[in-house]
Specification:
The complex is a heterotrimer of chains A (about 180), B (about 400) and C (about 750). Chain A folds into 2 domains: about 40 residues; about 100 residues, Alpha-Beta Plaits, CATH 3.30.70.3270. Chain A is about 30% helix and about 15% strand. Chain A has a 3-stranded antiparallel beta sheet with strand order 2-3-5. Chain A has a two-stranded antiparallel ribbon with strand order 1-4. Chain A is elongated. Chain B is mostly helical and about 400 residues long. Chain B is built from 17 helices and 8 strands. Chain B has a 3-stranded antiparallel beta sheet. In chain B, helix 3 runs antiparallel to helix 4 and helix 6 runs antiparallel to helix 7. Chain B is globular. The model of chain B has no long low-confidence stretch (mean pLDDT about 85). Chain C has 4 domains: about 110 residues, Roll (Ubiquitin-like (UB roll)), CATH 3.10.20.740; about 120 residues, 2-Layer Sandwich (Alpha-Beta Plaits), CATH 3.30.70; about 240 residues, Rossmann fold (3-Layer(aba) Sandwich); about 180 residues, 3-Layer(aba) Sandwich (Dimethylsulfoxide Reductase, domain 2), CATH 3.40.228. In chain C, strands 16-15-28-27-26-17-18 form a 7-stranded mixed beta sheet, sandwiched between helices. In chain C, strands 1, 2, 3, 4, 5 and 6 form a 6-stranded mixed beta sheet that branches. In chain C, strands 21-20-19-22-23 form a 5-stranded parallel beta sheet, with helices on both faces. Chain C starts with 19 loop residues before the first strand and ends with a strand. Classes of the chains: A alpha+beta (about 180), B mainly alpha (about 400), C alpha/beta (about 750). The interface between A and B is large, with 34 and 37 residues.
Amino acid sequence: MSLGTFLKSTIDGANALRTGFGITFRHYAEQQLKTKPVDTIQYPEERREQYPRTRWRHVLTRYDNGLEKCIGCSLCAGACPARCIYVQAAENTDEQRFSPGERYAAKYEINMLRCIFCGFCQDACPTGAIVLRKDFELSDYTREDFLYTKEMFLEAAPMETMIPASTIGAMNRENAAK
Amino acid sequence: MAIELQELNTNALNAQGIQVDALDDTTMVINMGPQHPSTHGVLRVVLELDGEIIVRATPHIGYVHTGIEKSMEYQTYMKAVTNTDRMDYLSAHINNAAFTLSVENLLGIAPPPRGQMLRVMLMEIQRLASHLVWIATHCLDLGAMTVYFYAFQQREKLLDLTEMISGVRMMPSWIVPGGLRGDAPEGWFERAKEFVDNFPEALEELENLLSANPIFRERTQGVGYISVDECLGLGVSGSTLRAAGVDYDVRKAKPYSGYEQFDFYVPLGEFSDVYDRFRVRMAEMWQSREIIKQCIEKMPEGAINISDRKIVPPPRKELDNSMEAVIHHFKLWTEGFHPPVGESYVPLESPKGEIGFYIVSDGTNRPYRAHMRPPSFMNLQALSTMCVGRLMADVVAVIGSIDIVLGEIDR
Amino acid sequence: MSDHRLTQTEASLNVTGADLVNIKVNGIAVKVPKGENVIEAAKRAGVDIPYFCYHPRLSKGDAANCRMCLVEVAMPRKNPDGTEVIAKMPKPQTGCTLPAAEGMEIQTETPAIARDRKGVLEFLLINHPLDCPVCDRGGECPLQNNTLFYGPETSRYIEEKRHFPKAYPLSEQVVFDRERCIHCARCTRFTEDISGDAQLGFLKRGADLEVGTYAQTSFKSKFSGNVIELCPVGALLSRTYRFKARPWDLHTQKSICSQCSNGCNIKVDYRLNSLQRINARLNEEVNEEWTCDRGKFGHEYVNSPNRLTKPLIKKDGEFVPVEWSEAYRLLAAKLKEANGNVGGIGGYRNTNEDLFVFQKFFREVLKSNHLDSRIGRYGDSITKPLFERFGYYTMGNAISELETMKTIFVLGASLADEQPILFLRVRKAWRFKGASVIHANTFDTVDTTKVSDFAAANLIYKPGTEITLLYGLLNLLLVDNTNSIEITPQMTSLMKAAGEYPLEKVAEITGLDPKEILKTAKLMATSPTAFIVGDTVTESPDYLAIMQALGDIAVATGNEKNINVPVREVNSQGALELGILPDFAPGFVSVSDPGANTHQMLTSAANGTLPMLWVLGAKLAEKYPDRELVQAALSTAFVVVSELEMTETAQYADLILPAASFAEKDGTFTNCEGRVQRIYKAFDILGDVKPDWLIFTEIASQMGTNFPYFSARDITLDLSKSVPSFTGITPKSLGDSGIRLRN
């Protein structure tokens, strides 16, 4: 290696290093002087933005009158690629009414360890009962605790769930008429 | 004592099907991985060393084999899309698209222009995200930690875009047969525009940090050479192949999803070494940004899904009053559509190389066979060729440069 | 996922004539039997034509009303000038009513047909409620399937749909949703053609048309469950299965119904470890594709909350759950104490495998021949009435052979109750094959499903006069020879015996109209005639004499091989074949020192000479005629009961062993015609139950004898080696339809 090339490569190297360190230093300065927004978030004190479509923990929603939207049709279980949903339906009576129509989910369980949060259940749900919402902190200590039951999924009732049969929608007019 | 150990070691390796020369005490066999941080997952490379020179490098795979292809045979075509996310988990959109395009080819359908372009946009966003992970981890392996933070900072913005449209960051399953599961939400294009505008600055920073850096150049230039013939012989594709100077990019060679309407070029290397692969991928990032920019500008109005209700479930609002819609919704979500008997393969350009799904349909609602052409798997075969005769420290650089994801290799 | 088709019947069933014609289906040339309808003919060419109302086993009475099977047809026609052209019919034809003819060309996939199908489905869906998500049929619904494949994609109908009360309880088992009905008439035709009670029919007309029972009464039928499977929509649904599961939740296992001896082939649909429903499985030789209600709805005991899940030992009058090891210790000690003086009763509800090990354990380990599976009144040697005279035991005919009979004489049986599948065959012989049926019994049931409905002669005789009636008939046949039967010299003694029963005397004693008896005798002279004997006779004290008289008639008319005395419980036949009898080892091999029969065992247990009884699933306390004797016997002896549930008999036990039900074990059952059929294990219930063969194998090894059995399959294979009548019966050779013994 001639002296010329040696010098040239040394100087080039030094220049490149200077550029690199310059960038790093600029970032450091920006962080310290807070001239640019900081991308790091101090979780759990700070939370990042979550979007309306965020697919995390499932929720079973209700109608405004307090009836459950879920009719226990099991379509979510049929659409689930991980086969983690277990639905057992039962029949509504006028004394014990959970949802409009004849059928409601007596048991609704999801094995959250198997769930892959693909959201097919909310796409398949014909009444829009099961939705995936933003609660993503789902860690727990034992496997059994990941077997979420219907009570855990169900939204809090906005009002008393037992409502007079006369206010039931068209879908069940006949039972209501009895 | 040492010889006995060597013999034991040799026997053990031979029993596993790894060829090492018995009782040859001139070479030494060491294991790299599967828990080595620079092997990007759980790759195990068995290295045979003569001093510090590599005589043989045998990649050992299968540590994260999960039988994904087999599971897909038991899912309807719609549900099988979720399995593809988990193969190359850094480019989920492109995996989804690879499966979807193959199924759509079976069905003989193609989504409307907006659906096509939205797919292209998501795929390019995914390509950028994947390349950013590559540059971050590759440089981390070579000792440059700063790049990691700057690259992930940018990737975060891309994942935000994915999350905005699909609801999750990495496993969206958003591209499905017939189109997409949903249109872009309000404000999404603005966010994408903002990213496109700010990205060059960040990309330049990354280039400035690395391309002239003497340490980086020492570690990469002239390292991991592979000839064009060997590339072609081993089925290498993607940036590794283009770094060898072969002009093969599926987006240009066999355009899909309307790639022909975009103005971009295919960057090529000339020395086929680790540094050239770095140059090619950096240039590809510029091109991807270019495509995203064109997508935002050209995005047509209209539907994103095909109108055939025998494949795509009807819109939700019809479920309240149409018996036909209720039946189709019910059947498509539980039983799914039945493609005609046949087989199909559609190649795509993934960040790693040529990806594609070979699907055989027997006319039922589930694939009879679904097989992926995994680019990482093919490219990994070139590892031995690239490493032999080099120093052991170069293995890390080479593994980084071929950009593998073990989830895709093992499936 | 349980598969559902509109019929399980194969194409070959509907062959009407032997001569073949050449037709073309979508250009594919096939040869099909002349007169076969186009749906079946197209199936032979591999072309599926969609339909709702058509069913190969139902008559075409109201058929072709769904209009789904429309096809385009062209027929060769001669022009006036003699040239032949293929002329297309101007309008599409219904495939289910169109017979195949020479040169016919059928098109099923033309644009016009596709449009017609869309139109048909659009009309069907106009009034169909938006119930799929709550309907039990959803997921296995032919209407859904046909809509997905052939139907329109969007609705044009925006008006109000018709409304009826939902979930109207049609009967104990069937719930009816009138809104969903598409008026295919499958259920109405079923009750008319197959079950024969004609309970369902169409009421009103036009847009108000609806299915119902005529007087709006409850739907009473012994076969009502079949209409649930026949219904192509979710209009007729099971009340027990209501809202229980979805097809994709279910796994299906092949099995055999455990409710009676007919051995219906069924599909057990289960979810996790509970049985959800029973569906019929095709077996042309046995049940075709039907089940009776007892079979379809009577299997709730499998998942009953009363199922025993642990061995129970009675301590101070109370049952204490224990581990199997403790139960075995007690059992082994007691068996050693009894020293071979042990009686085994029951087994008629166990598999052949259980029974084989049961008798092997008793005969080889305990050296006891005190075994009996019969708990009815008749406890004598079973060889006497039939075997010694004709060489067979219970049924001379196969179930499917009944179809070929000219006359069927049903004596003393409420056939629909006792042998539901035999009843369906008898009715099929009458309705579709032109057989005459004679019904003779001491009473006629008030049920809607009964033989007397279609019997050519209906003899309701006074109780206890069977012998008089039979000899009276013999007298008419031979002495009066109303039908000029050829009298052979061997028959002279018969004629002499019959001569003592002139018609007037018989009519007076039996209380029957002489004309009716004459008519019967006339019908009986036609050959072949099959005799089916039921409970009134087998429970009669004169059983032997009646069988003697019946045998005389059979000999006189040349029907020696056509006497059928079908057993009642699921594996009663198997218990006979496998020697759960005091005087026979498996394969009806006589034993040198016969043991005691059920009555003798109970008597000696009651007076303390038989210290130990093992009751294998027999409902002694509930069913044995002499209730006091049973109570005395069971409270005196040390009683081991193998049972599924806590029955009345089990209450008397000192040790209860929880057994596996038919859904929880592998094995084979032998039905009343001697057909050995396989059952498959479907699931495990939660609990510590064991199949009976395993219990016997384990206790035998506790007693020092090791049986080489590790699975039911080992026993089946051993059976085929060591029991002559079971030669060639292996799990593999049984296949789906089973093998009839001695055939």
